[in-house]
Design goal:
Rossmann fold, Arc Repressor Mutant, subunit A, 4-stranded antiparallel sheet, WalR-like, DNA-binding response regulator, two-component regulatory system, phosphorelay response regulator activity
Length: 242
């Protein structure tokens, strides 16, 4: 059974999440602060971490960063407030998803299932090897390298990159990407924006002047294959900011 590490200093929240996840068939470990979370992750190698943003010792942002340095374990961040800055902070540190408190334990369980399913299955965009210059992605094996060096992509970053590469030259809206990659029929568009920014930092020669993942004003984003002709102006002006 998949093992989930639940990290929250609120004992009541942790207990409720623990109970719902166990009822759904998961093994669950718990930690109440940042240092304990890192020790537990090292000892048990969880398949996914449910991580509160506000923690004693080390906050969730720092814990997430350290977890991502060790291994590409999926992380779902719990944010205590609905402010956009909190959500973006969680995504930028490498979290694959977030849930805002107060939340439905049933919804969180569904999010856990969704992230784990995407982490264990081949990319929903299909299998095969994709190439973009020195970037090589094996969709079936879920591996990505650039200049022969493995890229530390999160589950969502990988799926987003594969989906974009399988639709070259097509302007894709944030709403479409949320639905196709995240499986959300509604959601915060900044989720896509942050993931595009993180991908650019990992695959572009100059993330401030992207050539592969470009912004289409008023629409969303587009993948332009290396060496492709200048884009058709009719498809929309380009921008280098997210």
């Amino acid at each position: 059974m998949p093992r989930v590490l639940v990290v929250d200093d609120d004992a009541t929240v942790a207990e409720v999440v623990d109970r719902y996840l166990r009822n759904a068939g998961f093994d669950v470990d718990r930690a109440a602060d940042g240092p304990a979370a890192l020790r537990a992750a090292e000892a048990t190698a969880p398949d996914l971490v449910v991580l509160d943003l506000m923690l004693p010792g080390l906050d969730g942002i720092e814990v997430c960063r350290r977890l991502r340095e060790r291994a590409p374990v999926p992380v779902i961040m719990l944010t205590a407030r609905g402010e956009e800055a909190d959500r973006i902070a969680g995504l930028e540190c490498g979290a694959d998803d977030y849930v805002t408190k107060p939340f439905s334990p049933r919804e969180l369980t569904l999010r856990v299932r969704s992230v784990l399913r995407r982490a264990s299955e081949p990319s929903p965009a299909g299998s095969g090897v994709l190439r973009a210059g020195t970037l090589v992605i094996d969709a079936a094996a879920r591996t990505a390298t650039r200049h022969g060096v493995p890229l530390g992509l999160t589950v969502r970053e990988f799926d987003l990159l594969v989906f974009l590469l399988r639709h070259p030259g097509r302007a894709l809206t944030r709403a479409e990407l949320l639905e196709q990659v995240w499986g959300w029929t509604y959601g915060d568009p900044s989720t896509v924006t942050v993931h595009i920014r993180r991908l650019r930092e990992k695959i572009e020669d100059d993330p401030t002047a992207p050539r592969l993942l470009v912004t289409v004003w008023g629409v969303g984003y587009r993948y332009d294959p290396p060496g492709a002709a200048d884009p058709d102006p009719a498809r929309g002006p380009l921008a280098t900011d997210a």
